[in-house]
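Quick board copy: two proteins, each given as sequence then tokens.
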Amino acid sequence: MAKSLKIFLFVLVSFYGLGVSSQSPTGKVHDSPRTQEKLVLGSPETPFVVQALPPVKTQADQLRMEIKSSRETYLFWGNCATIICTITLVISNLWLIKIYKTQVRIMSEGLMENAKAAEASASAALATNEMANLMLKIEQPLIAIERMGYENRSHRCEILFGNHGRTPAMFKEFNIDYVCEKFISDQAVYNSAQSHKVLDQGVANMGGVFQAHAVLGISEGDWERILKGEFKVWFFGYIEYEDFMHGLIRYCFCRVFAPTQSQMYPGSTPSEGEWHDDGPSAYRGTVQIS
């Protein structure tokens, strides 16, 4: 028991010595250096920072991270390739559009030039046609009345047609009729009964003449009224002929008879008098039939 008491006292003395040695001269107890270090690290001047250690990654986590990184890399370069292809397509399309516009402009200019050339050709053809028609008209026979007369006793009307053109005229048909009125209608109406066919010898060369005649039934009473000025006698008709191109032409005429002063008495005959070209335009002029 004495030995146990000695051991207890030794432990107590040792503990007390440790407690005394940790106090300051003023009697305060000082912390250990580790405690002081904690207090220094936790001061306002140097705040205490605790560093959190990352969790330990397993091999599966590392493999998953590598797959994710590879996928992001592939997506990035795929997007870059898509963008580059899109830009290339846009640039190529813009270039193609420019080429197409240039081709359209060139084609439009070519079409305009062709249109101008066609218009010039048409104008030249029209001018040539007009010149040819003019030459044909110059070379065509030109028919006019040289002399005209009416004999009252035989009721015979004679007309002498002259060819003033450069080519022969081949006469085919003529029509001579009359009307006793103060005025003649505006529309030319020809009586088919007064139409006469011309025989084959009815040809008038340049400077030649052709004589046509017809029997008209003007009575003595009508001539007396005509001489008194109550009516006028209108002689009208046409003569058809062919030119050297076998084109059929119709020359229309209309003349009014004015008796002389020596005939202005009853019983006179219109063997002499004046013939004037008169009447509506439908009765006069030259018409190309075919």
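And the next:
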Amino acid sequence: METVLNLSSEKNDMSESQKILELVELKKKKVKDLGLDTQIENFIFGDELLGKHWGSWYKEKTQSDEWFKRLKEIVGVQSIQNKKELIEDKKCDLIEIQLEKHKFTFGVTSSFRYSIDDLSFGELYVYVDDTQVMEFRCIEYGSSYSDRVKINSLEKFTDGEWVIELLEFFKNVNTFDESMNKYLHEEQEKIRIKNLKENFQITDEELKSIKQNTEINDSYSFGNKIGKWVKDNQFKTFLLISITFLILFVYSH
């Protein structure tokens, strides 16, 4: 995934500082085009089932739990844990996620600072195997805004093959999210039906009798359908019977 960005030939006469600024913009554009900033923002600050809640779920649930089972199968997560550490002398909440090839750590400043006009600022750090590869400046909006935290700018980026695994991870996260929503809906429906059975005192004998009645009704229904067709198609029925007798008469002689 790592690529060398080259400036066009007509920009060779630029000063070194101008070239650096140009290359920085190209790298920022690459991050934007890959959707890395948006994916990370949704993952950490979004309202999905995942993100910053993973660590607490991991501590509360065992590895045999359906959640972690699906995390391993669908997303490829091998371990998750939350930490609190200092990054650049700032207290940060960390989420460590071990995937097949790399360990990804997302660190967010515990409290946003420099409050200006209902806005506060903080940082989001991304580490791969304990090496920092990205840093974002973030804005926390006041209560009057619907979106509370957004990435504002990219401050650091080190390209590498880790990008491929991270993008695949985010893709699998969406699949996991859909899978767990379906699973939770099915589990809630099972609970609802179980409660209805208990609340209305429905017995297994009643369920069995309904099944038997359904089978009887189905057999009656088939006969009724034939009778209805004969009634609605009297001429066709007469014609069909006549042709049948005619064929039998011809073959008998």
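Board note added afterward: The helical segments are 16-34, 36-45, 54-60, 66-75, 162-199, 204-232, 234-252.
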